[in-house]
Specification:
The structure holds two protein chains of two kinds. Chain A is 17% helix and 33% strand. Chain A is α+β, with helices and mostly antiparallel strands. In chain A, strand 6 (57-63) and strand 7 (67-71) form a beta hairpin. Chain A has one domain (9-112): Beta Barrel (OB fold (Dihydrolipoamide Acetyltransferase, E2P)). Chain A has helices at 31-37, 91-94, 119-129, and strands spanning 9-10, 15-19, 24-29, 40-44, 51-52, 57-63, 67-71, 76-81, 103-107. Chain A is built from three helices and nine strands; from the N terminus they run E-E-E-H-E-E-E-E-E-H-E-H. The radius of gyration of chain A is 14 Å and the shape is globular. A six-stranded antiparallel beta sheet of chain A has the order 1-2-3-9-8-5. In chain A, strands 4-6-7 form a three-stranded antiparallel beta sheet. By secondary structure, chain B is α+β, with helices and mostly antiparallel strands. Chain B has helices at 8-13, 33-42, 62-69, 118-128, 152-157, 162-169, 204-213, 221-230, 267-271, and strands at residues 17-21, 24-29, 45-48, 53-58, 83-89, 95-105, 108-113, 135-138, 142-148, 176-179, 182-185, 194-200, 217-218, 281-287, 298-301, 304-315, 320-327, 334-339, 342-349, 354-355, 358-359. The longest helix of chain B is centred in the middle third of the chain and has 11 residues, at 118-128. Chain B is globular. The chains are: A alpha+beta, B alpha+beta. At the A-B interface, strand 4 of A face loops of B.
Chain lengths: 131, 363
């Protein structure tokens, strides 16, 4: 079973959110998601300054197998993107919760965080999809 | 749940991720599709291809039967063990399946057909064979394992039964040798050297394990697809099917037009379009912009829609995205492919992209 850190929040579409406690969050895809996708070969990120909406697609990760949309778990403005993924998308496979982060958002509605899952609830989602 | 090959439990014990394919539960990869791909280009990998069907065709008139059945001409097979790639066409000139046929002796040819098409292939064979008194025998008692890569033959040889080792070592490309119920062809679907081994199902697990112990890496369908795509080899169901003529699938080279009086099934339909300038071209594409080419993406040329990708993906050897595409005859040089609503430039090339570990197109 994949690793699910307790200090992160999750969306049921397999993104993770790390609260930086300065009004911004860092977002990536979970270890479980990268495992399902297989070797990543291409990542398309939003641009800095873009507005993203909670639940709307805002990035694409492509593995050798397929393309998969990434949905922003929160609304806000993109203030940073992980540009190293352009040349080394495999970083997401190697370290999904760390160096494989995708983008950082300044929250426009901090209450969005309350709608996200904790590690236990996300583990239940993974469990139910496995059956 | 799909059908399971005799190696199913072995795949699971080796960490395979299993997916449904052509009615079978098959390994997609055993951890990393990319590493499996590179193993076959640089060293040796093995594939469970038990889901494909071995069909033995026997009878006094089997050669005559195959000259009628296949678009390529088995008259080209004069030496025992020689193999031929061919399409099997319907009356409309569409492709029922693509296959390999081996000439063993005058009353025995062996054919290997695709998994997903097995049922209709056998129905077609059984419909055509009686007129030639040919017996059609699907060998469900045989397993098949492909061992591919520059070191594949070297690593596989000593794992073969002793009586087969010397004949196998002496095989030229596209020839096969047999001893008892074992059969080894120097053929494959990766663009690399190697063997395809057919053997009694009861001995398959031990053979697979012995290959693994000599350092042959288990590879799944994922790597098989990226390897064959780089090698510019067609995939039945993606690149061609019963509605597509081999003339529009890059398979002209597999049609034996001579002798002109050989009346193979589909010939009149094909001849009506032979050399027709309106035929769509089957080409390779190398993506210049960023992204990944995928099946069914649309191709644009001079701002007009001009065809479709039939197989697309990432080429690990080239570190680029590549595709096979069926396009209007005027398409050449540079075109564009629509990826998620955006047009991205791509270069039109002649496959293969990679052969024997080396890039054959400018990446």
């Amino acid at each position: 079973m994949s690793n699910v850190p307790n200090d992160l929040k999750y969306a049921k579409t397999h993104e993770w959110v790390r609260d930086e406690e300065d009004g911004t969050v860092v977002i990536g895809i979970t270890d479980h998601a990268q495992e399902l996708l297989g070797d990543l070969v291409f990542v398309e990120l939003p641009e800095v300054g873009d507005t993203v909406d909670a639940g709307a697609e805002c990035a694409v990760v492509e593995s050798v197998k397929a393309a998969s949309d990434v949905y922003s778990p929160v609304s806000g403005e993109v203030i940073a993107i992980n540009e190293t993924l352009v040349d080394t998308p495999e970083t997401v496979n190697q370290d999904a919760f760390g160096d494989g982060w995708l983008f950082q958002v300044r929250l426009s509605a901090p209450a969005d965080l309350d709608d996200l899952l904790d590690a236990d609830a996300y583990s239940d989602v993974m469990e139910s999809e496995a059956h | 749940m799909g059908n399971r090959t005799i190696l199913f439990d072995t795949h699971n014990s080796m960490g395979a991720r299993i997916v449904p394919f052509g009615g079978w539960d098959m390994p997609l990869h055993y951890g990393s599709q990319l590493e499996e791909h590179h193993a076959v280009r640089k060293d040796a990998g093995m594939f469970d291809v038990c889901h494909m069907t071995v069909v033995d065709l026997t009878g006094d008139r089997v050669r005559e039967f195959l000259r009628h059945l296949l678009a390529n001409d088995v008259a080209r097979l004069q030496e025992s063990g020689k193999a031929l790639y061919s399409c099997m066409l319907n009356e409309q000139g569409g492709v029922i399946d693509d296959l390999i046929v081996y000439f063993m002796h005058e009353t025995w040819f062996r054919m290997v057909v695709n998994a997903g098409t097995t049922e209709k292939d056998l129905a077609w064979l059984n419909r055509q064979a009686p007129a030639f008194d040919v017996t059609v025998n699907p060998r469900n008692d045989l397993a098949m394992i492909a061992v591919q890569g520059p070191l594949a033959r070297h690593k596989a040889l000593l794992q073969l039964p002793v009586p087969l080792q010397e004949p196998a070592a002496d095989l030229q490309p596209f020839y096969a040798a047999t001893a008892a119920d074992w059969f080894v062809g120097r053929t494959g679907y990766t663009g690399e050297d190697g063997f395809e081994v057919m053997l009694p199902e009861t001995e398959a697990v031990a053979f697979w394990q012995a290959l693994a112990d000599t350092g042959v890496r288990p590879c799944g369908l994922g790597a098989r697809d990226t390897l064959r795509l780089e090698a510019g080899m067609n995939l039945y169901g993606s690149d061609m099917d019963e509605t597509i003529s081999p003339l529009e699938a890059g398979l002209n080279w597999t049609i034996a037009w001579e002798p002109a009086d050989r009346a193979f099934i589909g010939r009149p339909a094909l001849e009506a379009h032979k050399g027709d300038p309106a035929n769509r071209r089957f080409v390779g594409l190398v993506l210049i912009g960023r992204g990944v080419l995928r099946d069914h993406q649309k191709v644009f040329f001079n701002d007009r829609e001009a065809g479709e990708i039939t197989s697309g993906g990432f080429a690990p050897t080239l570190d680029k995205s590549i595709a096979l595409a069926r396009v209007s005859p005027e398409v050449g040089g540079e075109c564009e492919v629509e990826i998620r609503g955006k047009r991205v430039p791509a270069r039109v090339v002649r496959p293969p992209f990679v052969r024997n570990g080396k890039a054959r197109v400018e990446a």
